[in-house]
Design brief:
heterodimer; A: about 475 residues; alpha/beta; Aconitase, domain 3; five-stranded parallel sheet; 15 helices; about 30% helix; B: about 200 residues; about 15% strand
């Protein structure tokens, strides 16, 4: 390939990180940034069993999130099962001299919120974490993807990974999103269109005027759910929105280093004429507030729609999948989504727990009362503090919501925050899988404004009708 | 890692698409160390009722299911969470090969690091194999990694493609980290260049 061949953003980052070429079309990629959390203990165990050292502790960043209880500090002692994991991260990071923002630190939070917030995530880097939602960091123009425990151990020991270059898909969203329509609605519309396996084997670049118009928090939400479309990695080209967001953050380059980095970052966007393996287009203006009705993120529909009929499925496998999903969620085909009642509301997760998410939810909640149990878990200690500084906590508390501490909370079902069997939960998280929020719990994905509307009306409601 | 060469064994078929790794091993079991043996958690909430009793209708609780070493699945098997425990649960139960039209990308990578062979077959071939497995419970399915073939219980043969690097690792059972550490000079050279070209990193 000559240097004149138009290249994609992903091509440029990939090529700049190849350490060596291997058999079968694999490349040994250098990893610039490695995020660790309290679920990473198995990878440390693996490292210790083989007596290997961490090659570049300076390129790692750790904070506990998966096992962190979000009930107010001091409410009850942390159960041993959870505390063990939080302590193991503290111990492992101390042993290996890895930067650790611990549970008592004001900056602690969900690793995919804290990484960008601290400026650890940068454009043009390769970034990995033992968590599938690592795709989030592509919002800053990083090649970021989730890995398993063996790969975490591999990165700790070698600072590299063997990877096969993914196929590339460009999803172009032109037009403008309607008032109050968010990145969450957009990504649910994208997944409904291409399917939860639509991006398998691909990295996705999001482009188009509606994507460029998203602020950084919207882009983080968009890239976060790339994995729910089957793609390990989603990315948005860095631009002034990115640079304005990063400038001055704790771990971002400063001074002359910033200027040098910025000059490099401006060369990263995809060249005109670069080829993608697949192109998908959507009209941003057509995106409606979305909710899911099934047990896969692809089971998403506009709030004005009805529950679909498995008999209309394109093939027997899809029909079986839909029938199983509806049996689990307890919904009947033809039911208007706007009549479905909810039992509980969760606002949080690496998808939707940032300040703009909490503002959008608070705008709906203000002056109203939650009719069902509802709580908010901010994405980080800094998000929580910023929300409290502008009084959002009081808005939620006055409406009967609980205002929790930061962590993965009810998205991941492993830290004590769960729904009850059979409950229907309106959730701003990313997965409506069977049992994800507790055994028998029915999860429905939606934006923060939609979840807030569900809380104050007790059913799925187009938040725009509450204006 | 246990090498994989050939295998002839009982198989089970799962017809549902998009079986996610939360269903393969629910999150509430992930706090265990790997040494606990994750096979006991495989498809836990499909295998066991609320009192921990086996659900007789579930295929892995039937005689041919307990003996199964091969699983034939539908589209997008093991999508979702990156939890490697999904692979440990399958392997711990005794599953050594999973055949499907497509897999979650992270699971697909995790699998071969643990000696679990994941085979992609075209959707129509996978559907035919699932039907044959369902029609002949307990009948053997054969997987031959060197020849890259699968033979169904009805005698149908399918050829599959596999990344040469993965094939080597599976056949030899070699440790990937050891392989990479042998490239330490390449990594050090890259780091020197990286320091010069992108010093802000």
């Amino acid at each position: 390939m000559t240097t004149d061949t138009p290249r994609t953003l992903i091509d440029k980052i990939w090529q700049a990180h190849v350490v060596a070429e291997g058999a079968g079309g694999r490349a040994l990629l250098y990893i610039d940034r490695h995020l660790l959390h309290d679920g990473s203990f198995q990878a440390f165990d693996q490292l210790h069993e083989t007596g290997r050292a961490v090659r570049r502790p300076d390129l790692c960043f750790a904070t506990p999130d998966h096992y962190v209880p979000t009930r107010p500090a001091g409410a009850a002692p942390i159960e041993a099962r959870l505390a063990d994991k939080i302590d193991a991260l503290a111990q492992n990071t101390r042993t290996h001299r890895i930067r650790h923002v611990g549970i008592a630190d004001a900056r602690q939070g969900i690793v995919h919120v804290v990484g960008p917030e601290q400026g650890f995530t940068l454009p043009g880097v390769t970034l990995v974490c033992g968590d599938s939602h690592t795709s989030t960091h592509g919002a800053l123009g990083a090649l970021a993807f989730g890995i398993g425990a063996s790969e975490v151990a591999h990165v700790l020991a070698t600072q590299t990974l063997w990877q096969r270059r993914p196929a590339q898909m460009r999803i172009t969203v032109d037009g403008r999103l309607g008032a109050g329509i968010t990145a969450k609605d957009l990504i649910l519309a994208i997944i409904a269109k291409i399917g939860s396996a639509g991006g398998v084997g691909h990295a996705i670049e999001y482009a188009g005027t509606a994507v460029r118009a998203l602020d950084m928090e919207g882009r983080l939400t968009l890239c976060n759910m790339s994995i729910e479309a089957g793609a390990r990695c989603g990315i948005v080209a860095p631009d002034d929105t990115t640079f304005d967001y990063l400038h001055g953050r704790a771990l971002a380059p400063a001074g002359a280093a910033w200027d040098a980095a910025l000059a490099h970052w401006r060369t990263l966007p995809t060249d005109a004429g670069a080829r993608f393996d697949r192109e998908v287009r959507l009209d941003g203006a057509a995106v409606e507030p979305m909710v899911t009705w099934g047990t896969s993120p692809q089971d998403a529909a506009p709030i004005g729609a009805v529950v679909p009929d498995p008999d209309a499925a394109p093939d027997a496998t899809a029909k079986a999948g839909m029938a199983q999903a509806l049996a689990y969620t307890g919904l009947r085909p033809g039911t208007p989504l706007s009549t479905v009642k909810v039992d509980r509301v969760f606002i949080g997760s690496c998808t939707n727990s940032r300040l703009s998410d909490l503002r959008a939810a608070a705008a709906v909640v203000r002056g109203r009362r939650a009719l069902v149990p509802a709580f908010v878990a901010p994405g980080s200690g800094l998000v929580k503090a910023a929300a409290e500084a502008e009084g959002l906590d009081q808005v939620f508390l006055a409406a009967g919501f609980e205002w929790r501490a930061s962590g993965c909370s009810m998205c991941v079902g492993m830290n004590g925050d769960l729904g009850l069997p059979g409950e229907r939960v309106a959730s701003t998280s990313n997965r409506n899988f069977e049992g994800r929020q507790g055994k028998g719990v029915r999860t429905h994905l939606m934006s923060p404004a939609m979840a807030a509307a569900a809380a104050v009306t007790g059913k799925f409601t187009d938040f725009r009708t509450l204006a | 890692m246990e090498p994989f060469v050939t295998l002839t064994a009982s198989a089970v078929a799962f017809d549902l698409p998009n079986i996610d790794t939360d269903r393969i091993v629910p999150a509430r079991f992930l706090h265990h160390p790997r040494a606990v043996g994750f096979g006991q958690f495989l498809f836990h909430d499909l295998r066991f009722d609320a009192d921990g009793r086996e659900i007789p209708g579930f295929v892995l609780n039937q005689a041919h299911g307990r003996a199964a070493r091969i699983l034939v699945a539908a589209d997008n098997f093991a999508c979702g969470s990156s939890r490697e425990a999904a692979v440990w649960a399958l392997a711990g139960f005794g599953i050594r090969a999973v055949i499907a039209p497509s897999f979650g990308d992270i699971f697909f990578e995790n699998s071969f690091k643990n000696g679990l062979l994941t085979i992609r077959l075209p959707a129509a071939d996978a559907a035919r194999l699932r039907a044959a497995v369902a029609a002949h419970p307990g009948a053997p399915v054969s997987v031959d990694l060197p020849a890259q073939t699968v033979h169904g219980p009805d005698g149908a043969a399918f050829r599959f493609e596999i990344d040469g690097f993965k094939k080597e690792c599976l056949l030899s059972g070699q440790d990937e980290i050891g392989l990479t550490l042998a490239r330490a000079d390449d990594i050090a050279a890259f780091e020197a260049r990286r320091r010069a070209e992108t010093p802000w990193l």
